Every structure is written in C-alpha cells, then in structure tokens.
Amino acid sequence: MTNTATVVDNGTVWVSLKEVREMLSLYGERITLKLVGEPGIGKSSLLPAKAEDNGDKWRKPGDYYADDKYNYLYIDCPNEEIGDRKMKIPVHSTKSLEDYISSEFRLSEGKPLYIMLDEFDKCPKALQVLFARMILERTIGSNPLPPGSVIFITTNNASDGLGDATKGHNINRVMVVHVRKSNNKEMAAYALSKNADPALVAWMAATKQAFNCSYLDGNQQNNPYIFKPNITTPFVSGRSAMACDFIIKQRHTTSPRITMAALTGTIGAAGARSLMACVDLNDKVPKTEEIIKAPTAIAIPDDALAQILMMIHGASDVETQDEVEAFMQFVERIPSSEVQSIFFHMMVTSANPAKVILVRNNSRLTKWRKDNYELI
Fold first, then answer.
1. For the residues 305-327, what does the mean pLDDT come to?
2. So what's the pLDDT on residue 286?
3. What is the number of other CB atoms lying within 10 angstroms of the CB of residue 129?
4. Which has the closest alpha carbon to 42: 118, 108, 121?
C-alpha cells in the first residue's frame, strides 16, 4: 500500500485519508483545511479518526468525556439553521444585544475544540457567513474559540454535480486538500482491521476496478461499479462497501434472493453480482485449520480469488508462531507473489499488535519480505 500523494496532469495533488490525518495534526491549529473529494470516500469519518489519533475516547456526536484533550463537534452544515449555533438575545438592563452561543461549543470549559464542518458548501448562506469568521478568525460570533482549537471542512468536488461551489475569496482563506478514494488494497486492510467478513475483505482485495477513481484512473465511463456525476443509482464507495459487511454476515438468516437485493441496493448491480460470487466461493475454500494441519499437501485452487480468500482467512485466523510457520509453508506454494503479498500485507497492517509481532519474529515472513521487497 502506498501513501504517496498522487499528482494528475492539471497539477492537482491528491492525498490519502491517512495523509489527511497527518496534515490535520501538522497544520490544523493555524489553517483551516478544506477537504474535497467524491462521495463516500470517508471524509466524514475523519473526526472520530482524529479523536483516536489524539488518544481521546470520543467517537460520535453525543459523546462527551471530561478527560478528553479536545471537545469534538460535528456540524452537519446542510441541515443547520443560524439559531442552532448563535442567537442575538436582548439584554433589557443595557438595552443591547448579546451573542448566545450553543452549549455544544462548551466554551466555558476552556478546552480546545476539534470542529468538523461537514458538507460546508451546501449550508445556508447565513451560516456560511457565521462559519467563515470561525474558519478564518477562530471565533463564533464575537466569542473566541479556546487556544489550540482545530477546524476543518469537507465538501464534494464541484464537478460531481452535487451543488458544491465556493467563492474565490473564501478559497483564499483555507488550505484546499484533494482527498482521493482509497484503493482496493487500502480498503481491504481497513475492512480486516474492523473484523469485516473475510469474503468482503477478499472481494475488496481482488476487485481493483470497484475502487478506481475517475479523477485519477483515466476514463472510467464504462466502469459499472463507481460513482459518476448526475447518476443516481447505487455505487461502490468505501462507505457503501463497508455497509455490505452487515448484509453478508446476515446471509445465513435469510434467502440468497434477499441478500442479493440488499447488496444491489447498497453497491449497485455490478458490485452485488461480483461480491455475491465471492461470498459463494468463500463457503467452499479450505479453512485455515485444514491448511495448518497439512500445509504442503493441501490442494491449491486454480481460481486466484479462492487463493486470495485463503490468504485473508489465514491472516485473520493465525494466532501463534507455529501456526504462522505452517501457514507460510502453504503461502510459499502459491504461484503468484501478488497473491502471497496479500497475506503479508494483511498481517503487517493488522490492528492487532500481536499479529505484527508474529510478522517480526517469523523467519519465513522475514525472508519473504526480503525476497519480495518490490511488492511492499
């Protein structure tokens, strides 16, 4: 997996979600980042991701933890009204108006805020004026935000046809960051870290086209999986693909027809057919425990997708050094080093620290990494 920024012909630099998290840490206190990208790529997930980066417990609107370093505030801009955040209230004793600020800012605590203005370019004009001061001056009305506060905004590409447009003078006040869609390997690693169904992880790893991006991967007009402006049918994105995890895990409680209808309504017909084929194959491949018992004897399927499924299951299932040693004997028999790399990649990117330790301490994996460094 690469985290290197991608530059396209018009000079736009596209960065990954991981790189955005780093940029927020580097620049967020001084400059407001405006994150631009197509729908469903994970922009809205960045606030809980940053809370995790900061070592805080906050994960969703409504959470509050007094010992967190920051207070977190998610603002859904298109559904806001001016009175939701600030109102002028008459003070009869002085015959003047004072700003009353929403309690969600928790200004009285003096703790720095981490504020996400989601879909900023779609919010009402009156709120854009209010938020413009917050973005530029770190104030809400006439009330300064606590020192160390971070604000970032998200929006879609103007060319996506979703009504996102920013005035030129406002662009000059922020750092515009173009966020690319996560590729199939990045999505597979993320899904594995979230304990997604192995069939979904394998489908992500094997179906590169479903995670292509029309901005970076050339002409995608005939790609049946992905988002296209002004087309309202379901499509594959990181968000919709992860939603399939719950559907797949429920497949044994209902009919294949209902499962197929649910997947189609979530990621579109092409994605559903492809994913369902992977799910069906997943139920037929040898299990990890069978491979560990006979790593040099068990048959290797001819189907590359079946091999990938076995790599995904292996990365998820192995727990001891002996199991890794046995499974690696099987991995070494796989004819494609690309397929082999999936097992290694899933192990080293695992959210489970014990898996990473297994990788570091296993001689076969160490040798494989040296022999196949160009794939890492």
1. 92
2. 92
3. 10
4. 118
Question: Which of 338 and 127 is assigned the larger pLDDT?
Answer: 338
How far is it, in rounded angstroms, from Cα 82 to Cα 87?
7
Nearest residue to 323 (alpha-carbon basis) of 293, 347, 279, 283: 293
User: pLDDT tens across 214-235, in order?
Assistant: 778 777 888 999 988 777 899 9
Cα-Cα-Cα-Cα torsion 292, 295, 367, 354, nearest 10 degrees, comes to -10
Residue 140 structure tokens: 């809400």
Copy the structure tokens of residue 214: 């029309």
Binning pLDDT at 50, 70 and 90, where does residue 162 land? very low
Q: Is 264 helix (H, G, I), strand (E, B) or coil?
A: helix
Number of Cβ atoms within 10 Å of the Cβ of 29: 14
Distance CA 308, CA 277 (A): 14
Q: How far, in Å, are 27, 74, 199, 317 from residue 293 at the CA level? A: 52, 50, 22, 14
* HSE value, Cβ hemisphere, 13 Å, CA-based, for 267: 28
Which of 151, 142, 131 has its CA nearest to residue 100?
Answer: 142
Question: How far apart are the C-alpha atoms of 197 and 241, rounded to whole Å?
Answer: 12
